[in-house]
Amino acid sequence: MSIRVLDVEVCSKELTLYQRLVGDVSCVVWDAAIVLSKYLQLLIEPNGECSLIGRKVLELGAGVGCVGLTAATLGAEVTLTDLPEALPLLKHNIVENKSTLVSQGGFATVEALSWGDVESDVIKNTAFDYVLLADCVYYTESIDPLINTLKSVNQNASKKPCIILSQELRDSEIQMGLWNMFFQKLKKDFNIAKIDSSEQHSEYSSDDILILHCTLKS
Ligand SMILES: C[S@@+](CC[C@H](N)C(=O)[O-])C[C@H]1O[C@@H](n2cnc3c(N)ncnc32)[C@H](O)[C@@H]1O
Fold first, then answer.
1. Is the CB of 70 under 6 A from ligand 1?
2. How many angstroms is it from 47 CA to the middle of ligand 1?
Protein backbone atom coordinates (compact mmCIF):
# COMPACT_ATOMS: atom_id res chain seq x y z
CA MET A 1 0.00 0.00 0.00
CA SER A 2 1.37 3.46 -0.82
CA ILE A 3 0.70 6.36 1.49
CA ARG A 4 -0.27 9.89 0.67
CA VAL A 5 -0.60 12.49 3.37
CA LEU A 6 -3.14 15.17 2.60
CA ASP A 7 -2.82 18.36 4.59
CA VAL A 8 -6.38 19.57 5.05
CA GLU A 9 -5.40 22.61 7.11
CA VAL A 10 -8.39 22.36 9.40
CA CYS A 11 -7.47 23.79 12.75
CA SER A 12 -3.90 22.62 12.02
CA LYS A 13 -4.99 19.00 11.62
CA GLU A 14 -3.75 16.63 8.96
CA LEU A 15 -5.51 13.65 7.39
CA THR A 16 -3.56 10.54 6.43
CA LEU A 17 -5.10 8.80 3.43
CA TYR A 18 -3.91 5.35 2.39
CA GLN A 19 -4.14 4.53 -1.30
CA ARG A 20 -3.36 1.36 -3.22
CA LEU A 21 -0.83 1.26 -6.04
CA VAL A 22 -2.78 -1.43 -7.85
CA GLY A 23 -6.56 -1.48 -8.03
CA ASP A 24 -9.57 0.23 -9.55
CA VAL A 25 -10.81 3.83 -9.43
CA SER A 26 -11.72 3.63 -5.74
CA CYS A 27 -8.10 3.11 -4.61
CA VAL A 28 -6.69 6.61 -5.06
CA VAL A 29 -7.59 10.21 -4.28
CA TRP A 30 -8.76 11.94 -7.45
CA ASP A 31 -7.97 15.60 -8.11
CA ALA A 32 -11.67 16.54 -8.02
CA ALA A 33 -11.77 15.26 -4.42
CA ILE A 34 -8.91 17.50 -3.36
CA VAL A 35 -10.51 20.51 -5.06
CA LEU A 36 -13.85 19.78 -3.36
CA SER A 37 -12.19 19.23 0.03
CA LYS A 38 -10.36 22.54 -0.18
CA TYR A 39 -13.52 24.32 -1.35
CA LEU A 40 -15.46 22.85 1.58
CA GLN A 41 -12.96 24.27 3.99
CA LEU A 42 -13.36 27.75 2.48
CA LEU A 43 -17.14 27.42 2.49
CA ILE A 44 -17.49 26.04 5.99
CA GLU A 45 -14.77 27.68 8.01
CA PRO A 46 -14.29 31.20 6.64
CA ASN A 47 -13.56 32.42 10.15
CA GLY A 48 -11.56 29.39 11.21
CA GLU A 49 -14.52 27.76 12.94
CA CYS A 50 -15.54 24.14 12.39
CA SER A 51 -19.16 24.96 11.74
CA LEU A 52 -20.26 21.56 10.39
CA ILE A 53 -20.66 20.39 13.97
CA GLY A 54 -24.03 18.64 14.30
CA ARG A 55 -24.55 18.51 10.51
CA LYS A 56 -25.23 15.20 8.79
CA VAL A 57 -23.33 14.58 5.59
CA LEU A 58 -23.58 11.77 3.04
CA GLU A 59 -20.73 11.10 0.63
CA LEU A 60 -21.44 9.04 -2.50
CA GLY A 61 -18.64 7.17 -4.30
CA ALA A 62 -16.25 8.10 -1.51
CA GLY A 63 -13.23 6.18 -2.80
CA VAL A 64 -10.54 6.39 -0.11
CA GLY A 65 -12.57 9.05 1.73
CA CYS A 66 -10.83 12.37 1.11
CA VAL A 67 -13.98 14.51 0.91
CA GLY A 68 -15.98 12.77 3.65
CA LEU A 69 -13.07 12.75 6.05
CA THR A 70 -12.52 16.44 5.39
CA ALA A 71 -16.18 17.10 6.26
CA ALA A 72 -15.79 15.05 9.43
CA THR A 73 -12.67 17.04 10.31
CA LEU A 74 -14.86 20.12 9.96
CA GLY A 75 -17.08 18.63 12.65
CA ALA A 76 -19.77 16.80 10.64
CA GLU A 77 -21.33 13.39 11.23
CA VAL A 78 -20.44 11.78 7.93
CA THR A 79 -21.67 8.60 6.27
CA LEU A 80 -19.15 7.64 3.60
CA THR A 81 -20.53 5.24 0.99
CA ASP A 82 -19.20 3.28 -1.94
CA LEU A 83 -19.47 -0.15 -3.55
CA PRO A 84 -18.74 -3.07 -1.18
CA GLU A 85 -15.30 -3.74 -2.70
CA ALA A 86 -14.14 -0.20 -1.84
CA LEU A 87 -15.07 -0.42 1.84
CA PRO A 88 -12.02 -2.14 3.41
CA LEU A 89 -9.62 0.66 2.41
CA LEU A 90 -12.21 3.29 3.28
CA LYS A 91 -12.68 1.77 6.74
CA HIS A 92 -8.92 1.64 7.20
CA ASN A 93 -8.70 5.37 6.48
CA ILE A 94 -11.44 6.14 8.98
CA VAL A 95 -9.70 4.18 11.71
CA GLU A 96 -6.41 5.86 10.83
CA ASN A 97 -7.93 9.34 11.20
CA LYS A 98 -10.47 8.69 13.94
CA SER A 99 -8.72 10.57 16.72
CA THR A 100 -8.39 13.62 14.45
CA LEU A 101 -12.09 13.64 13.57
CA VAL A 102 -13.20 13.09 17.14
CA SER A 103 -10.95 15.89 18.40
CA GLN A 104 -12.81 18.21 15.99
CA GLY A 105 -16.26 17.08 17.11
CA GLY A 106 -16.74 15.02 13.94
CA PHE A 107 -17.66 11.41 13.30
CA ALA A 108 -17.40 9.11 10.29
CA THR A 109 -19.01 5.83 9.43
CA VAL A 110 -18.92 3.64 6.30
CA GLU A 111 -21.81 1.94 4.48
CA ALA A 112 -22.16 0.09 1.21
CA LEU A 113 -24.40 2.02 -1.16
CA SER A 114 -24.74 1.19 -4.80
CA TRP A 115 -26.27 4.02 -6.85
CA GLY A 116 -29.82 3.30 -7.83
CA ASP A 117 -30.57 1.34 -4.67
CA VAL A 118 -33.16 3.85 -3.53
CA GLU A 119 -34.58 1.43 -0.95
CA SER A 120 -31.29 1.32 0.95
CA ASP A 121 -31.63 2.08 4.67
CA VAL A 122 -28.63 4.40 4.30
CA ILE A 123 -30.69 6.96 2.42
CA LYS A 124 -34.12 6.10 3.83
CA ASN A 125 -33.40 6.42 7.52
CA THR A 126 -31.41 9.63 7.86
CA ALA A 127 -32.10 13.23 6.92
CA PHE A 128 -28.87 14.67 5.55
CA ASP A 129 -27.89 18.33 5.43
CA TYR A 130 -25.31 17.83 2.69
CA VAL A 131 -24.58 15.26 0.01
CA LEU A 132 -21.04 15.36 -1.37
CA LEU A 133 -19.59 13.63 -4.40
CA ALA A 134 -16.36 13.97 -6.33
CA ASP A 135 -15.60 12.62 -9.79
CA CYS A 136 -18.51 10.20 -9.89
CA VAL A 137 -19.55 10.71 -13.53
CA TYR A 138 -17.40 8.47 -15.71
CA TYR A 139 -19.49 5.62 -17.16
CA THR A 140 -22.81 5.57 -18.97
CA GLU A 141 -24.60 2.87 -16.99
CA SER A 142 -24.19 4.81 -13.73
CA ILE A 143 -25.83 8.04 -14.84
CA ASP A 144 -29.51 7.22 -14.27
CA PRO A 145 -28.85 5.26 -11.04
CA LEU A 146 -26.73 8.11 -9.67
CA ILE A 147 -29.40 10.71 -10.43
CA ASN A 148 -32.05 8.46 -8.88
CA THR A 149 -29.98 8.18 -5.72
CA LEU A 150 -29.52 11.96 -5.59
CA LYS A 151 -33.31 12.38 -5.94
CA SER A 152 -33.97 9.81 -3.23
CA VAL A 153 -31.85 11.24 -0.43
CA ASN A 154 -34.13 12.57 2.35
CA GLN A 155 -37.14 10.89 0.71
CA ASN A 156 -38.75 10.58 4.14
CA ALA A 157 -37.83 14.05 5.38
CA SER A 158 -39.19 17.51 4.65
CA LYS A 159 -35.83 19.23 4.18
CA LYS A 160 -33.85 18.96 0.97
CA PRO A 161 -30.13 18.37 1.23
CA CYS A 162 -27.59 20.69 -0.33
CA ILE A 163 -25.71 18.62 -2.89
CA ILE A 164 -22.17 19.72 -3.66
CA LEU A 165 -20.40 17.89 -6.42
CA SER A 166 -17.09 18.26 -8.15
CA GLN A 167 -16.19 16.75 -11.48
CA GLU A 168 -13.09 16.74 -13.60
CA LEU A 169 -14.06 17.50 -17.21
CA ARG A 170 -11.95 15.21 -19.34
CA ASP A 171 -11.43 16.14 -22.97
CA SER A 172 -12.12 12.79 -24.64
CA GLU A 173 -15.26 12.78 -26.74
CA ILE A 174 -16.75 9.94 -24.71
CA GLN A 175 -16.20 11.65 -21.37
CA MET A 176 -17.49 15.00 -22.64
CA GLY A 177 -20.61 13.28 -23.97
CA LEU A 178 -21.13 11.51 -20.67
CA TRP A 179 -20.85 14.70 -18.67
CA ASN A 180 -23.28 16.51 -21.00
CA MET A 181 -25.76 13.66 -20.69
CA PHE A 182 -25.49 13.70 -16.90
CA PHE A 183 -25.79 17.49 -16.73
CA GLN A 184 -28.88 17.62 -18.97
CA LYS A 185 -30.59 14.98 -16.84
CA LEU A 186 -29.54 16.66 -13.60
CA LYS A 187 -30.92 20.01 -14.82
CA LYS A 188 -34.41 18.54 -15.23
CA ASP A 189 -34.81 17.77 -11.53
CA PHE A 190 -32.34 20.05 -9.74
CA ASN A 191 -31.63 23.76 -9.45
CA ILE A 192 -27.93 24.07 -10.17
CA ALA A 193 -25.41 26.79 -9.37
CA LYS A 194 -21.88 26.66 -10.71
CA ILE A 195 -19.24 27.85 -8.28
CA ASP A 196 -16.99 30.45 -9.86
CA SER A 197 -13.24 29.87 -9.60
CA SER A 198 -12.98 33.12 -7.58
CA GLU A 199 -14.98 31.37 -4.83
CA GLN A 200 -12.75 28.30 -4.85
CA HIS A 201 -9.40 27.73 -3.19
CA SER A 202 -6.81 29.83 -5.02
CA GLU A 203 -4.23 27.02 -5.15
CA TYR A 204 -6.43 23.93 -5.23
CA SER A 205 -8.71 24.72 -8.16
CA SER A 206 -8.52 24.06 -11.87
CA ASP A 207 -10.27 25.13 -15.07
CA ASP A 208 -10.93 21.43 -15.72
CA ILE A 209 -12.72 20.79 -12.42
CA LEU A 210 -16.27 21.99 -11.92
CA ILE A 211 -17.99 22.51 -8.59
CA LEU A 212 -21.79 22.60 -8.54
CA HIS A 213 -24.35 23.23 -5.81
CA CYS A 214 -27.63 21.44 -6.54
CA THR A 215 -31.00 21.26 -4.81
CA LEU A 216 -33.98 19.20 -5.83
CA LYS A 217 -36.70 21.28 -7.51
CA SER A 218 -40.01 21.49 -5.65
C1 LIG B 1 -13.36 8.19 -9.87
S2 LIG B 1 -13.70 7.44 -8.32
C3 LIG B 1 -13.79 8.86 -7.26
C4 LIG B 1 -13.49 8.49 -5.83
C5 LIG B 1 -13.48 9.67 -4.87
N6 LIG B 1 -14.77 10.33 -4.84
C7 LIG B 1 -12.40 10.65 -5.23
O8 LIG B 1 -12.72 11.60 -5.96
O9 LIG B 1 -11.24 10.46 -4.83
C10 LIG B 1 -15.44 6.99 -8.45
C11 LIG B 1 -15.97 6.29 -7.24
O12 LIG B 1 -17.34 5.94 -7.47
C13 LIG B 1 -17.55 4.62 -6.99
N14 LIG B 1 -18.66 4.03 -7.76
C15 LIG B 1 -18.68 3.70 -9.07
N16 LIG B 1 -19.85 3.16 -9.42
C17 LIG B 1 -20.61 3.14 -8.31
C18 LIG B 1 -21.93 2.69 -8.06
N19 LIG B 1 -22.69 2.17 -9.01
N20 LIG B 1 -22.40 2.81 -6.80
C21 LIG B 1 -21.64 3.36 -5.82
N22 LIG B 1 -20.37 3.82 -6.00
C23 LIG B 1 -19.86 3.69 -7.25
C24 LIG B 1 -16.23 3.91 -7.26
O25 LIG B 1 -16.09 2.72 -6.49
C26 LIG B 1 -15.24 5.00 -6.89
O27 LIG B 1 -14.90 5.01 -5.54
1. no
2. 32
